[in-house]
From TrEMBL:
Cofactor: pyridoxal 5'-phosphate
EC id: 2.6.1.42
One GO molecular-function entry: branched-chain-amino-acid transaminase activity
InterPro entries membership: Aminotrans_IV, Aminotrans_IV_CS, Aminotransferase-like, B_amino_transII, BCAT-like_C, BCAT-like_N, BCAT_family
Organism: Flavobacterium ponti
Catalyzed chemical reaction(s): L-valine + 2-oxoglutarate = 3-methyl-2-oxobutanoate + L-glutamate; L-leucine + 2-oxoglutarate = 4-methyl-2-oxopentanoate + L-glutamate; L-isoleucine + 2-oxoglutarate = (S)-3-methyl-2-oxopentanoate + L-glutamate
Name by which UniProt lists this protein: Branched-chain-amino-acid aminotransferase
NCBIfam families according to UniProt: ilvE_II (TIGR01123), PRK13357.1 (NF009897)
Length: 351
């Protein structure tokens, strides 16, 4: 296929109708979308065009069999106003990992990054500049072949949308340690960013919220004994000055923020270990006063401090001070707007 992206811009941007200093992620969408079609065994016709409805056949296979995957990332602006992306190559790789698991075609990684760059450059006026804000980018792929029957589809769409986003959880969060429902099991699809994983999490998250919690803390599907991850975040604990985070056991999403936070913490001289973590270990550390900090990390939220973990059987309060987590949050945010040196080479200019 030709990877030249055809561009048809809107005559007038809607950005003036949106207060970028007061936006909530997911409600407003930018003027354009990137679209690419997979037919006859190859990706075709990459284009950036006006955001619009897409006619969908009622038998489109994604609607029935769930071949749908997505990514999430954020564009920011550097100090000179240049639009910036954070590790888009990692999102490209993860999308293809998800595609492989779900029997979907690979999307060329260079086209993925190029499409994001061109899309972000065109939508740069939609990037909010208030601290902690960004333009959320949502690349996704779904099966659009009209067919009823269980097999991989033969046609797909890959699309990128943009939605300006304010700072996510500015408050500390309470986690419900889920002991009835599970998110993922080894050999399942938990490692993939598959739409169905999120569908399965909706009802348990509603139950957790009804009990006064913000998010679900997922435990392992076997024994509800090991900590996995949180809603749309990976999780870190600091015990006696050292950090631990659950290892990528086969059912946890390999977060790009997670891998970046591990690098940042090690660079600052902290020991970080990826290993299985039992809930009882965290309870014990809390009881004996060695649990110092706990936080969730993910693109949508950045770093979210955790103030409480509990369920109907226990409540565990976390220390109020989060000095290292705050430092990591500030460093990551500063790198993303080029206020701090990008010594890891994570930032990609979108121009
Ligand atoms: C289930 C889940 N875990 C973890 C994360 C964090 O991943 P990332 O840091 O790449 O946003 C996300 C968000 O994408 C997620 O949906």
């Amino acid at each position: 296929m030709t990877s030249e992206i055809k561009i048809s811009k809107v005559k007038e941007s809607k950005v003036t109708q949106v207060d970028l200093d007061n936006v909530t992620m997911g409600f407003n969408f930018t003027d354009h979308m990137f679209v690419c079609d997979y037919t006859n065994g190859e990706w075709q016709n990459p284009r950036i065009e006006a955001l619009n409805l897409i006619p969908t056949h009622p038998a489109a296979m994604a609607l029935h069999y769930g071949q749908a995957i997505f990514e999430g990332m954020k564009a920011t602006k550097g100090q000179d106003g240049t639009p910036l992306l954070f590790r888009p190559d990692q999102n490209a790789k993860r999308l293809n990992f998800s595609a492989d698991r779900m029997g979907m075609p690979q999307f060329p990684e260079d086209l993925f990054v190029e499409a994001l760059k061109q899309f972000t450059a065109i939508e740069k006026d939609w990037i909010p500049t208030k601290e902690g804000s960004a333009l959320y980018l949502r690349p996704f792929m779904y099966a659009d072949e009209p067919f009823i029957g269980m097999r991989a589809a033969t046609s797909y769409k890959f699309i990128i949308l943009g939605s300006p986003a304010g700072p996510f959880f500015s408050k500390k969060i309470k986690l419900f340690a889920e002991n009835k429902y599970v998110r993922a099991v080894n050999g399942g699809t938990g490692e993939a960013k598959a739409a169905g994983n999120y569908a399965a999490a909706i009802r348990p998250t509603e139950y957790a919220k009804a009990k006064g919690y913000d998010q679900v803390l997922w435990l392992d599907a076997q024994d509800f004994e090991y900590i996995q991850e949180v809603g749309t975040m990976n999780i870190f604990f600091k015990i006696e000055g050292k950090f631990i985070t659950p290892d990528l056991s086969g059912s946890i999403l390999a977060g790009i923020t997670r891998m970046s936070v591990i690098d940042l913490l090690r660079d600052k001289g902290f020991e970080v270990t990826e290993r299985p973590i039992k809930l009882t270990e965290i309870k014990e550390a809390s009881a004996n006063g060695t649990l110092e900090e706990a936080f969730g990390v993910g693109t949508a939220v950045g770093i979210a401090m955790i103030e409480e973990i509990g369920n109907d059987d226990f409540t565990l309060k976390l220390p109020a001070e989060n000095p290292v987590s705050n430092m990591v949050n500030d460093t990551l945010n500063a790198i993303k707007v080029q206020k701090a040196e990008d010594k890891f080479g994570w930032i990609v200019e979108a121009k």
